[in-house]
Amino acid sequence: MTLSRNKYQNKEFFIMNLVLTYFHRVKGPSIYLSFPDVNAKLEDDIIHKLMKFFDLDINETFFEIILINKKKRILNLYFEIPSEWARGNIEMAMLSLIMDIKFNSRLTWSFLVDASHKIISTPAIFKAFYKDDDFRDDSDIEIDLAYETIKKLLFNSINNLLERMVK
């Protein structure tokens, strides 16, 4: 699933990535999903910074990082998803929007909040984070459905943001 680039290709603000990071119970912070694909668009040091954000002792759920040398702005929203399978009954997750430094973060803050609420309010969405776990039974279709649901939610959310920014 890719963003419809041709629809936005002439707009200079198209240079942005939406990344969902979560805390894997064995591996620690891991990038779960990205639009467009994280491997094709993000530099390794930015990926490393995203995963390190989980280690920061910040009392805020929303924080912004500006990388002056890279001319990037990273807006982050940490949130927790109720989970029957996780230690402490929560999955720790963070949505990050990476974009050029010149963009205003007001519209994007509400976008991150809205996208996180859609994820949190989806029943059994926590199962999506167990898609690649070793204990997973391949016949457990609920995990695949949760993964496809979260993927669709994020894809639709980023496309809606881009459409609002075009206006």
Shape: globular
Give the strand line-up of the largest sheet: 2-1-5-4-3
CATH architecture call: 2-Layer Sandwich
Report Rg. 16 Å
Helicity range: 25-40%
Query: How many domains, in number, for the residues?
Result: 1
Provide the β-strand percentage band: 25-35%
* Element string (H = helix, E = strand): HEEHHEEEHH
Overview of this structure, please?
The chain is α+β, with helices and mostly antiparallel strands and 167 residues long. The protein has a single domain (5-166), classed as Beta-Lactamase (2-Layer Sandwich). The chain has helices at residues 5-8, 38-41, 44-52, 106-120, 141-166, and strands spanning 16-24, 28-35, 62-67, 72-82, 90-100. Strands 2-1-5-4-3 form a five-stranded antiparallel β-sheet, sandwiched between helices. It is globular. The chain starts with a helix and ends with a helix.
Summarize this, please?
The protein has helices at residues 5-8, 38-41, 44-52, 106-120, 141-166; strands at 16-24, 28-35, 62-67, 72-82, 90-100. The chain is of the alpha+beta class and 167 residues long. It has one domain (5-166): Beta-Lactamase.
Top keywords for this entry?
167 residues, alpha+beta, Beta-Lactamase, 5-stranded antiparallel β-sheet, 27% strand, globular, disordered N terminus
Topology:
Layout: H1 5-8, E1 16-24, E2 28-35, H2 38-41, H3 44-52, E3 62-67, E4 72-82, E5 90-100, H4 106-120, H5 141-166
Antiparallel strand pairs: 1-2, 1-5, 3-4, 4-5
Helix pairs in contact: 4-5
